[in-house]
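Troubleshooting log. The previous structure file for this entry was overwritten by mistake, so regenerating from the original sequence record. Sequence copied from the archived sheet and checked twice against the printout by T.R.
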Amino acid sequence: MSIPLIQIKDLSISFGNTEVIHNISYDLHNNEILGIVGESGSGKSVSSLAILGLLPKNAGRVTSGSIIYQDKNLLQLSNKALQDVRGNKIAMIFQEPMSSLNPSMTCGKQVQEILERHNNLSALESKEETLSLFEKVKLPDPSRIFRSYPHEISGGQKQRVMIALAIACKPDVLIADEPTTALDVTVQKDIINLLKRLQKETELSIIFITHDLALISEIADRILVMYQGQIVEQGPSESIFKNPQHNYTKALIHSRPSLDIRLKKLPTVQDYLSHDFSREIMTSEERRQRHSIMYNNPPILEVINVEKTYISKSGWLSKPHTFKAVDRVSFKLYEGETLGLVGESGCGKSTLGNAILQLDKASAGTILYKGKDITNLSTSDIRALRKEIQIIFQDPFSSLNPRIPIGEAIMEPMNVHGIFNTIEDRKAKVLSILKRVGLSETFYNRYPHEFSGGQRQRIGIARTIAVQPKLIICDESVSALDISVQAQVLNLLNELKQDFGFTYIFISHDLAVVKYMSDQLLVMNSGKIEELDDADVIYNHPKKEYTKKLIHAIPKGL
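Regenerated output below.
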């Protein structure tokens, strides 16, 4: 193989007195896509930020090693010299485009700024080049996007603007840090195909960082696997995916729900590392018997021709514009059932969930809970309903008060709904709930910022189940979690369902997860029901082209 474009040799990085990257070495070659995979905290992003000298100031520092690019050690360059490398020779796409793009500047202006700084183009030349870049990354209506602010375009479009920014100066290397996390499965596939096409056209070298091994196997030529600051395995994609050697790599592959079989319990990374797991399969006959009992009872929830219409005006003199986010949706939900609700962003999934919760009232239709219409309840009746129907949010950190210890946060809804008579009884219940969701009783007095993402999601679940609800809406509640943490939370939700008889509406854009969790599956498109049937039936024999497109876009690995 040719001389590497970038050589990382014996790199170690510390935060304070703690070493987080331990003596890692790897190469990036010309015209290559290198995948770096691992969970949060494995060191994949930190080691890549070091390439561009972007480690947090006064916090992270390189303690040993070298990063060689074009015969220069980037670690020895001055800040001014590094600025000429950043964006111009080595560019980066960050995980969250909304926080990376300037909200006060139009998308076009942000790309123009880069071009004018590095390429000395005039305003007219930079505008023409920006529009050309927007066409290259397949943005619809480039002129409109050029004039739009980041909040006015979709998540997938924002990510394409970020890619346009990154490739504007025709860099040699593109570092893509989790560029598809939390995107719809179809948008994710579009971004993957776009990066592959750009790499082929421009002979760009790409470092693609992710926690999803199935996804990375679809784009990368080589993969290196990181765990706790070390590279535990590296090699060609096909070899890593089909014949993994390290137990951690095996865990990353098998922690993700399979589309072919339904395990009773997903194995986690820790299960693999301790060799303590079973692969017991839920058979079709077991599933059929459970369904025959469940569907012989009356539904706990019935949604009949529900609509939600929004009215907006773009100016004082303009006519109102109506948008139907939910359009005549009807379905039944049975006690003990998990109904999967899938579709692309903007299809109406969360709007429908909010209508059921009475957080955003339906414009038309009927919602029956235990046979009673809940669409026109009084304030006191809605408060009582809150105890029966709860929600687990996507981002547990923003839904927890940072100033309140988690024990008090879990107890708070118990106080509101008058569950148990004394503080002592409530505290005892909180401690038992903490234990039940896999957290220590000693966490009672700790604050949200002291926990990992997976632990915070467990706290969110604990807070939800504290009021003993009957129906729980899980709104993208595992979409931002690492594969292994996701497996832990999915296992927990299934255990709680079995122990307490919960009924779930499981909203997600991750179709592999929805198939694993669901009894019935409801596919939404543009506010309407596209398909509604048994989850296995829809995945094995989808009827609609839209559903086929969603299923085809799921990363399946090599």
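The chain has a mean pLDDT of 89. Archived copy saved in two places this time.
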